[in-house]
Amino acid sequence: MWGTFVGMSLAWELGFRRLVIESDILSAIQLANGSKTQPASPTLLSYIHDLCRKQWKVNFIHVRRNFNTVADCLAKMARLDCFDLVPYAQPPHEIQLLLRDEEGHENSPDSVADPTGG
């Protein structure tokens, strides 16, 4: 959930006003889409809900792990002792390969269609 919070904060600061957050962790998506009531003391989830209340459109979507290969690869590339944001001017080579592979599978029968048509 930390990555969701940091990503949302960065997207807001950069001026994005429509955001789709995909995760293969169903419980995280359920929590993010859950009750937006404020707890007695702030939690990471309450900070995410605060960001959701800003003037923008945020959708949380659960995706199957096999459709989340890019995020999975980035997570595996991360250093376990580093919590700093690591921006990339271009995707790392491993990610470029995965993106090319995904382009070839967009029209496969197993691909997930966007129900909103977006």
From TrEMBL:
Molecular-function annotations in GO: nucleic acid binding; RNA-DNA hybrid ribonuclease activity
Ranges where the RNase H type-1 domain occurs: 2-78
Pfam families hit by this protein: RVT_3 (PF13456)
Cited Gene3D superfamilies: Ribonuclease H-like superfamily/Ribonuclease H (3.30.420.10)
InterPro entries, A to Z: RNase_H-like, RNase_H-like_dom_plant, RNaseH-like_sf, RNaseH_domain, RNaseH_sf
Entry-linked SUPFAM superfamilies: Ribonuclease H-like
PANTHER family: OS05G0353850 PROTEIN (PTHR47723), POLYNUCLEOTIDYL TRANSFERASE, RIBONUCLEASE H-LIKE SUPERFAMILY PROTEIN (PTHR47723:SF19)
Protein name in the entry: RNase H type-1 domain-containing protein
Organism the protein comes from: Hibiscus trionum (Flower of an hour)
Lineage: Eukaryota, Viridiplantae, Streptophyta, Embryophyta, Tracheophyta
